[in-house]
Amino acid sequence: MDVEELKEALDYVVLSGPATVNRLHIGGVLQPVVKQVGSRTFYFVEDRWIDAEYDSKGETRKIELFSDAYFDLIAKHPEVAKILALGERVVFRIGETWYETQPPAEAQEPPPE
């Protein structure tokens, strides 16, 4: 999202009032920025869905999408499938461990030179 799209989205939120404050107008499409999955609340912040209980100072275990670890996690904890359906980047907790899904390595942008 570029600066102009962000300004447009924020203008939309301000002008639309409290009834639509949980959505942003991005690229001509109304997008939710808060979602419920079961009893959990997730916020869309800086290109990822983050569990409302997450403390940004905490460490996360990185899981690459569609990797063996990703499918092992779903096999061990089938309830997490709905959470993973939120998108490519999701921060969530199972037990005491926080996880963060990431796109496959070949799909990630190369580091700046």
Low-confidence stretches: 11-22
**Overall pLDDT:** 78
The number of strands is 8
**Count of alpha/pi helices:** 3
Strand order of the largest sheet: 3-4-5-7-8-6
Percentage of residues in DSSP E strands? 25-35%
Index terms:
113 residues, alpha/beta, 6-stranded mixed sheet, two-stranded antiparallel sheet, 3 helices, globular
What does it look like?
The chain has helices at about 5-15, 70-75, 80-85, and strands at about 25, 30, 35, 40-45, 50, 60-65, 90-95, 95-100. With about 110 residues, it is of the alpha/beta class. The chain folds into two domains: about 1-30; about 35-113, no CATH class. The strands form two sheets. Strands 3-4-5-7-8-6 form a six-stranded mixed sheet. It has a two-stranded antiparallel ribbon with strand order 1-2. The chain has three helices and eight strands.
